[in-house]
Amino acid sequence: MCGIVGLIDFSGITEEDKVLVRKGLLLLKHRGPDEEGIFRDHQAVLGHVRLSIIDLSSGRQPMEDEELCVIFNGEIYNFLDLRKELENLGHSFKTRSDTEVILKAYREWGENCVERLSGMFAFALWDARERKLLLARDRLGKKPLYYRLTNSRLVFASEIKALLADLPEKKIAPEALDCFFSFGFVPSPASIFSGIKKLPPAHLAVFSEKGLTLKRYWEVNFSPRAYSLDEALGEFLTLFEKAVSTRLISDVPLGAFLSGGIDSPLVVAQMSRLLDRPVLTNSIGFDDEAGSELPLAREIARFLGTDHREYLVKPEAAKILPKIIYHLDEPLADSSALPTYYVCQMARQNVTVALSGDGGDESFGGYTFRYLPHLFESRLRQKIPLPLRSTFFRLLGAVYPRASWLPRPLRLKTIFQNLAVSDARAFYQDLVWLPVDLREEVYTPQFKKELDGATPFEWVYPLYQKTREIDPVSRAQFVDLHFYLPEDVLVKVDRMSMAVALEVRSPLLDYQLVEFAGRLPLELKVRGNTGKIILREALKRFLPEGLISKPKRGFAVPEAEWLRGKLRPFMEEALDTRDSCLWQHLERKKVKALWQKHLSGRLNLGVFFWGLMIFRLWEKEFLL
């Protein structure tokens, strides 16, 4: 794992440009505490900080090969296979690193080399002869890449903080802020700052004197085929063993995260079969063990014979929030960033690399609290004439009282509102944390004017419509894989792990496994009230039924409860402050009224208010 920062200017590199890159490296030092390097020529400055994982002695960056130079953040898991192929084509290697494989692959296949790479990566490759820069990001967006373009000049970095010195003015992008209030995150290609963008996952960008061009090189294809359970299970186990095995290549200590669910136990069980020593596992929980996964994780660890460590997170741990905000760069309302930071910190005390279970929910149908109601409502919509749905249920949805504290099946307002609209609109309404009607209520007239009619639905609709021919669960998964996963889950994991210089690898996000999941029929993903059918069947090969059937309790912080308790002063400081730009965008009185409803328990807007608290801490760090 590493941090990269660079600058290309076709009018020539100045001393100020070199200083900007050096300052950026200092801000990224947490991502790569082991080594630092800089490349310079007349039009490029490329900087790199390294967390040494593979080829500790000769894998230094920036890495040059005649007129080519690359800086790279991540891991290429199939680099040994690619190296053999390239050697057969006549290429010779000076190092054992995956970085050099990128250079030789580009020399052999040009820009299309990115399609051959399997891993997590963001890299910049400067071709001095062709006078062009290639930027690339992995298929699912595990590794970040921000950039700023002005005329003949492009500045880029692993984190947004390394680009802020290049911004003439720190101005919040209205549509990005709208997305944050609604989803809790800022999606690509936007960033929270006007003038800075994110390279989207599965994209490459080419910057030359002709300008900047972006190209998508991969997308999940959902095309269910007629698998039997045995056929699907056999194919999954083969792909999964390979995915775990390639992620065990490391020249430094390696371990894993372990929860009480399905995904990480599956990863740890496979690791236990492949390694000749006990796996070092790490689990996180809350001070209320009755609502924690620790007891179940402990049982699984005992059965698998792992070297197990645990950590308890308490509300007082929120004192670390300013540090977490600094490393997140952009506001992120996912409260599980807090325990993620602590489990990464705990793991880093013993290992440099940790395997995780990320990706199982999105690829294999784990979000049953959203997917199953969406499937039920979609089937119901098909049976009710559109005129009746759009009038009768719209009226019921408008007048029925909101009860977000109830379990989903009892939230009749939500069901009525969803039945009144299309599948795509209903999925969007389930995805947002700030309900659509409340959004209209709390936004200031000025903010609405700045948005000029734009809504967060415009980010979701094109993704949902891309897969119209398949079932509603697969359509929801497609959105999650291209939206929620890369913009929330993987942002959280990357920033929190890199904050403590820990590399996290996710076998279930191997792109071949994700493509396999896209071929699964609905009944091998969800059945009855249960999701991740194929993963559960696979786990039966490793664990007894009693450790699989127990209910998963989740990883997120109980933010609604904490905000009503020990974190209430944090929230009320945000609501009472006069210098916050929140009140340029939100109606203070209406937000305060919602806060009182939240405190009373009549509404559960925990994520929205957690997000407001996070935004206040973020603006203190980056704006004020």
Automatic annotation (TrEMBL):
GO cellular component: cytosol
Domain Glutamine amidotransferase type-2: 2-210
MF terms in GO: asparagine synthase (glutamine-hydrolyzing) activity; ATP binding
Signal peptide bounds: none
Record: residues binding L-glutamine: D98
Catalysed reactions, semicolon-separated: L-aspartate + L-glutamine + ATP + H2O = L-asparagine + L-glutamate + AMP + diphosphate + H(+)
Keywords: Amino-acid biosynthesis, Asparagine biosynthesis, ATP-binding, Glutamine amidotransferase, Nucleotide-binding
GO biological-process terms attached to the record: asparagine biosynthetic process
Enzyme Commission number(s) from the entry: 6.3.5.4
Active site: C2 (for gatase activity)
SUPFAM superfamilies: Adenine nucleotide alpha hydrolases-like, N-terminal nucleophile aminohydrolases (Ntn hydrolases)
Site (Important for beta-aspartyl-AMP intermediate formation): D358
Pathway, per record: Amino-acid biosynthesis; L-asparagine biosynthesis; L-asparagine from L-aspartate (L-Gln route): step 1/1
Alphabetical list of PROSITE patterns matching this protein: GATASE_TYPE_2 (PS51278)
Domain of life (superkingdom): Bacteria
PANTHER family hit by this protein: ASPARAGINE SYNTHETASE, ASPARAGINE SYNTHETASE (GLUTAMINE-HYDROLYZING)
Family note: Belongs to the asparagine synthetase family.
Protein name listed in UniProt: asparagine synthase (glutamine-hydrolyzing)
Upper taxonomic lineage: Bacteria, Pseudomonadati, Thermodesulfobacteriota, Thermodesulfobacteria, Thermodesulfobacteriales
